[in-house]
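Whiteboard transcription, Tuesday session. T.W. wrote the C-alpha coordinates on the left side:
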Protein backbone atom coordinates (compact mmCIF):
# COMPACT_ATOMS: atom_id res chain seq x y z
CA UNK A 1 0.00 0.00 0.00
CA UNK A 2 2.76 2.46 0.88
CA UNK A 3 4.49 1.93 -2.44
CA UNK A 4 1.38 3.29 -4.15
CA UNK A 5 0.59 6.08 -1.64
CA UNK A 6 -2.49 4.27 -0.39
CA UNK A 7 -3.54 4.52 3.22
CA UNK A 8 -4.97 1.28 4.54
CA UNK A 9 -5.18 2.08 8.23
CA UNK A 10 -8.92 2.69 8.26
CA UNK A 11 -9.21 4.16 11.77
CA UNK A 12 -7.01 7.06 10.66
CA UNK A 13 -9.33 7.74 7.72
CA UNK A 14 -12.32 8.69 9.86
CA UNK A 15 -13.51 12.09 8.62
CA UNK A 16 -13.38 13.55 12.14
CA UNK A 17 -9.70 12.66 12.51
CA UNK A 18 -8.93 14.06 9.06
CA UNK A 19 -10.80 17.31 9.86
CA UNK A 20 -8.89 17.61 13.14
CA UNK A 21 -5.54 17.00 11.42
CA UNK A 22 -6.30 19.57 8.71
CA UNK A 23 -6.88 22.20 11.38
CA UNK A 24 -3.64 21.55 13.28
CA UNK A 25 -0.48 23.58 12.73
CA UNK A 26 2.35 21.73 10.98
CA UNK A 27 4.43 21.94 14.16
CA UNK A 28 1.91 19.63 15.84
CA UNK A 29 1.96 17.10 13.00
CA UNK A 30 5.74 16.70 12.92
CA UNK A 31 7.82 17.27 16.01
CA UNK A 32 11.51 16.86 16.73
CA UNK A 33 12.61 14.99 19.82
CA UNK A 34 16.29 15.18 20.89
CA UNK A 35 16.01 11.56 22.02
CA UNK A 36 14.00 10.10 19.10
CA UNK A 37 14.67 12.59 16.27
CA UNK A 38 11.86 13.60 13.89
CA UNK A 39 8.60 12.27 15.24
CA UNK A 40 5.61 11.77 12.98
CA UNK A 41 2.16 11.09 14.41
CA UNK A 42 3.24 12.99 17.52
CA UNK A 43 -0.33 13.62 18.69
CA UNK A 44 -1.31 9.98 18.25
CA UNK A 45 1.78 8.88 20.16
CA UNK A 46 1.06 11.39 22.92
CA UNK A 47 -2.52 10.12 23.16
CA UNK A 48 -1.28 6.53 23.50
CA UNK A 49 1.22 7.34 26.24
CA UNK A 50 0.25 5.36 29.32
CA UNK A 51 -1.92 3.02 27.24
CA UNK A 52 0.83 1.44 25.12
CA UNK A 53 4.36 0.70 26.31
CA UNK A 54 6.97 3.30 25.30
CA UNK A 55 8.81 0.56 23.38
CA UNK A 56 5.85 0.33 21.00
CA UNK A 57 5.24 4.07 20.78
CA UNK A 58 8.86 4.82 19.83
CA UNK A 59 9.77 1.78 17.76
CA UNK A 60 10.73 2.13 14.10
CA UNK A 61 8.13 1.60 11.42
CA UNK A 62 7.74 -1.97 10.29
CA UNK A 63 6.26 -2.84 6.96
CA UNK A 64 4.24 -5.90 6.28
CA UNK A 65 4.72 -8.34 3.48
CA UNK A 66 2.19 -9.83 1.16
CA UNK A 67 1.94 -13.63 0.95
CA UNK A 68 3.28 -13.66 -2.61
CA UNK A 69 4.67 -17.20 -2.24
CA UNK A 70 1.22 -18.48 -1.32
CA UNK A 71 -0.39 -16.55 -4.18
CA UNK A 72 2.00 -18.23 -6.59
CA UNK A 73 1.47 -21.66 -5.02
CA UNK A 74 5.17 -22.05 -4.23
CA UNK A 75 6.27 -25.12 -2.26
CA UNK A 76 6.32 -24.51 1.46
CA UNK A 77 3.74 -21.72 1.27
CA UNK A 78 0.58 -21.96 3.29
CA UNK A 79 -2.87 -20.94 2.04
CA UNK A 80 -1.94 -21.49 -1.59
CA UNK A 81 -4.05 -19.73 -4.19
CA UNK A 82 -3.96 -22.94 -6.19
CA UNK A 83 -3.20 -23.62 -9.81
CA UNK A 84 -4.36 -20.46 -11.66
CA UNK A 85 -1.50 -18.16 -10.61
CA UNK A 86 0.99 -21.03 -10.69
CA UNK A 87 -0.08 -21.72 -14.30
CA UNK A 88 0.26 -18.03 -15.20
CA UNK A 89 3.70 -17.96 -13.61
CA UNK A 90 4.76 -21.05 -15.56
CA UNK A 91 3.52 -19.42 -18.78
CA UNK A 92 5.37 -16.18 -17.96
CA UNK A 93 8.62 -18.01 -17.30
CA UNK A 94 8.26 -20.45 -20.21
CA UNK A 95 7.50 -17.71 -22.76
CA UNK A 96 9.29 -14.61 -21.48
CA UNK A 97 8.91 -11.19 -23.07
CA UNK A 98 11.58 -10.45 -25.71
CA UNK A 99 13.29 -7.94 -23.42
CA UNK A 100 14.32 -10.77 -21.07
CA UNK A 101 17.10 -13.27 -21.58
CA UNK A 102 15.00 -16.39 -22.22
CA UNK A 103 17.68 -18.82 -21.03
CA UNK A 104 18.07 -16.95 -17.74
CA UNK A 105 14.31 -16.93 -17.21
CA UNK A 106 14.13 -20.66 -18.00
CA UNK A 107 16.92 -21.23 -15.47
CA UNK A 108 14.76 -19.50 -12.87
CA UNK A 109 11.92 -21.82 -13.77
CA UNK A 110 14.26 -24.78 -13.33
CA UNK A 111 15.26 -23.49 -9.91
CA UNK A 112 18.85 -22.54 -10.74
CA UNK A 113 20.40 -19.52 -9.09
CA UNK A 114 21.04 -17.18 -12.01
CA UNK A 115 20.77 -13.56 -13.04
CA UNK A 116 17.91 -12.10 -15.01
CA UNK A 117 19.06 -9.78 -17.78
CA UNK A 118 16.78 -7.14 -19.21
CA UNK A 119 17.54 -4.54 -21.81
CA UNK A 120 17.94 -1.31 -19.91
CA UNK A 121 17.80 2.32 -20.85
CA UNK A 122 20.80 4.22 -22.19
CA UNK A 123 21.96 1.08 -24.01
CA UNK A 124 22.96 -0.55 -20.74
CA UNK A 125 22.05 -3.86 -19.20
CA UNK A 126 20.26 -4.03 -15.88
CA UNK A 127 21.21 -7.07 -13.83
CA UNK A 128 19.34 -8.30 -10.79
CA UNK A 129 20.41 -11.46 -8.98
CA UNK A 130 17.49 -13.73 -8.27
CA UNK A 131 16.57 -17.26 -7.32
CA UNK A 132 13.48 -19.28 -8.09
CA UNK A 133 12.60 -19.37 -4.40
CA UNK A 134 12.37 -15.56 -4.20
CA UNK A 135 8.63 -14.87 -4.52
CA UNK A 136 9.01 -11.13 -5.17
CA UNK A 137 11.26 -11.67 -8.19
CA UNK A 138 8.82 -14.26 -9.52
CA UNK A 139 5.90 -11.90 -8.88
CA UNK A 140 7.70 -9.11 -10.76
CA UNK A 141 8.25 -11.39 -13.75
CA UNK A 142 4.61 -12.50 -13.67
CA UNK A 143 3.17 -8.97 -13.47
CA UNK A 144 5.49 -7.75 -16.22
CA UNK A 145 4.45 -10.72 -18.37
CA UNK A 146 0.75 -9.96 -17.87
CA UNK A 147 1.28 -6.25 -18.61
CA UNK A 148 3.39 -7.03 -21.68
CA UNK A 149 0.75 -9.42 -23.05
CA UNK A 150 -1.95 -6.82 -22.51
CA UNK A 151 0.00 -3.92 -24.05
CA UNK A 152 1.08 -6.06 -27.02
CA UNK A 153 -2.53 -6.85 -27.93
CA UNK A 154 -4.13 -3.51 -26.95
CA UNK A 155 -5.85 -1.92 -29.92
CA UNK A 156 -6.76 1.38 -28.30
CA UNK A 157 -10.18 2.71 -27.40
CA UNK A 158 -13.10 1.67 -29.60
CA UNK A 159 -13.51 3.87 -32.66
CA UNK A 160 -17.17 4.43 -31.78
CA UNK A 161 -16.31 5.94 -28.39
CA UNK A 162 -17.85 9.37 -27.89
CA UNK A 163 -15.46 12.24 -27.18
CA UNK A 164 -15.22 13.20 -23.53
CA UNK A 165 -16.19 16.75 -22.56
CA UNK A 166 -14.83 18.07 -19.30
CA UNK A 167 -16.65 20.92 -17.65
CA UNK A 168 -17.78 22.26 -14.33
CA UNK A 169 -20.89 21.12 -12.57
CA UNK A 170 -23.60 23.80 -12.41
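and on the right, the sequence the group agreed on:
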Amino acid sequence: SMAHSLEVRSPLLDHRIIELALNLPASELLRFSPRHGPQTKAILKQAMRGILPDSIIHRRKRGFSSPVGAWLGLPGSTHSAGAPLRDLLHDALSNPAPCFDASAVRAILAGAKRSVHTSGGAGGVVRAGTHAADPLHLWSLLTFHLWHDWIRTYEGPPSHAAPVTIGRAP
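Someone added at the bottom: Residues 92 and 143 are 9 Å apart (CA to CA).
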